[in-house]
Each structure stands twice: as C-alpha cells, then as structure tokens.
Amino acid sequence: MDDLNKRALDYHEFPRPGKLSVESSKPCATQDDLSLTYTPGVAAPVREIYADPTKAYKYTNKGNLVAVITDGSAVLGLGNMGALASKPVMEGKAVLFKHFAGIDVFDIEINAKTPDEFIQTVVNIAPTFGGINLEDIAAPHCFYIENELKKRLDIPVFHDDQHGTAVIVAAALSNALALQGKTLPTAKIVFLGAGAAGCSCARLLKLMGATSITMVDKSGVLDTSRVDLHDNNRHLAVAPSDAKTLADVMPQADVFIGVSAANALSPELLKLMASKPVVFALANPDPEILPDLAHAVRDDILMATGRSDFPNQVNNALCFPYLFRGALDAKAKQITDAMQIAAAHALAELAREPVPADVLQAYNLTSLSFGREYIIPKPFDKRLLARVSGAVADAARLQQAKE
Q: Do residues 288 and 314 make contact, with C-beta atoms less than 8 angstroms apart?
C-alpha cells in the first residue's frame, strides 16, 4: 500500500500537477486567427446565440461539455473530505469522460453551507454546460439536490453514485441470474445499505421487473412502521413483519447486494441463502465478504465486487461516459429511466458476445467468455461507445418522438 500511495502521488504531481489541461480546438497562429478567435470576429456567434440560444450548440463547446460537480461531502469511501480535497477525484472522473467517450469536462468543487446554496450555484453556472454530473454528495441531500436541479434545468442532470451504480448492477445482475438459472421477477433480493446507491439500485431493479426486494440499513429492515424513513426510501419499505434484521431476511435469499461496509456479510449468513446464490459485495475498498471466503463457504455462488483485482468488477466507468455521450448526441433534456434501462440492457448483451483480441491483450488474458467470472464487459472494450451510447441515444429519441 505504501508503494501504491507513492506511485499515486507521483502520478498526480509529475510532470505537471493534476490530471487535466485545457487545449484550443481552433488554430491561433496568425493575426487572422486571432481576429476570428476573439475580437472582432467573435461578435458574430455572440449575436447568433443571442437571437437563438440553441445556436450555442452550433458555435460553442456546450454540446460536448459536462460539469462534474461536488461538495465533497461523500468522497469515495473516505467520507466528508470537503470540496478542495475532492478535486483529484473530480479530475479523475473528467479523464474517464474524455478517454472513453470524448466528452470534455470542467471539474467544479463547491463550498456550500446548505443544499439550496449548492443548487443555486449549479443553476447559475449551468448555461456553460450540456450536462451536469453530480458526484460524491452525501445522502439524503443528494436526492434533494438532484431532484431540484432536474426541475430547474433543461439539460441532463445525473448523480452517478446513484444511477451509474444502478445501471451497472442491473446489467450484471441480469446476466448473473441467467447463469444461475433464475429470473429477476422471481428472485428474492436483499440489499444491505439503503443510501444513495442502494436506493437507486433497488428502484431501477423494480422498474425492470423485480418483485421481492428487502432493504436493510444500520437500523434494520426498512419496513413501513419505521418513523425514520424519507421520501427516497419510503417507497422501498416492506410491510411490517417479524423480520427485523439482516439475519432474519437472508434465509433462502437468491441475491445479496451489499453497498455498505467491509466484512458486513458473515459466512454464517451466506450459508442461509438459497441454492446458486448471487452475491454482489460492492463496498470499497474492502467488500462485505471477500471472494475467497465466500467461495470457500459456497461452491455454487456467483460473485461480483467493486474491485478490479477480482472477477466481475461493478465499475461505473462502464456507464456514465456512454450514458452522457448518448444523451448529448440526442440533445436530451434529461436522463430518463428508459435511457438507464437501455444502457443496462446494452451492457448485459455485450457481455454475452465473444471478447475481442484487443480486450484480452489489455488485460493480459488468453481467453475470456461469458460465464461465472465474466458477467459484465471490461472498461477497455471499445465496443462500449457505440453499443451503450447508441442504445441510450435511441431511447432518448424515441421519448422525444412521443412528446
């Protein structure tokens, strides 16, 4: 770990600090170039946009520019680190947007005393951008912030910690259940963790056909008798029963999805699950149960984590660049449930196809095929851009045609 920390710090410092730079997309080598870049020529597009604001997409980079915005209140698994300390993460997000989908990003870290102050700041700067990616904002404020921004802006607003995770989980679970001979509508699903990611995942799975989902948090099972529920988890609460703890709901569960904390799933509880269980232990950096331990307890398990050093990494980089690429290409005003479901289906379908040689080479593999240790595409699969972005854009245009 010390070596990793040293390499990471050197990576961020040299040969120049940070991971981003701004480069001109137009020449500026002559007096004529300068007259077009700035005064007097720049007045022409200003007049055009003033007369017709949609022409900002024609004469500026608005249509390919996303803001990655945070208040630093929930940075990775580190907690409330504040706006400034979150900047390396936001720069990293920008790198992934650019590398995987060709999308330009300004990372913006906001010191805000209240959610409303944060919202107003984003609204004030929104004309610059074609989309807003909210990042590392703690629950429950993240729900309120996203909902309010969606009401007030006419460009896509997306909280990746919620919906990006949900899309990848939905795609991976679809394939995992198929391999285990089960279906989403009939599977008994248990969530440990009812924060932003857990609630969004459960909501999307319900939209895609799940009928039996039980949420568990630090206080126990989310049931309708609890007085501490809020608007974004109340609809996921089950009817009151004698089942109050994780141990009460794990017997005969088909699926466990953990978005909670390290070592939160004991081997004893894993033994209680139904035959051929699916376990997504997504806490980072240490999962709810380590794969070696889980496989030692259950030889019929299919498992995924959030880590790249284990098979089946649930990685948001498979979603957000392509979801925004599709939304920007379709000039969508929001990212809808239908667009997220389209992305999940596209990801699941791609994993079932033969893996290209360049992907095998990128991961130093001789072979890889759809199965218990490959249920979701690899991030460096170049087919993702066309497949996922295309599916998202098609879903957006279909919705636009209905409106």
A: no
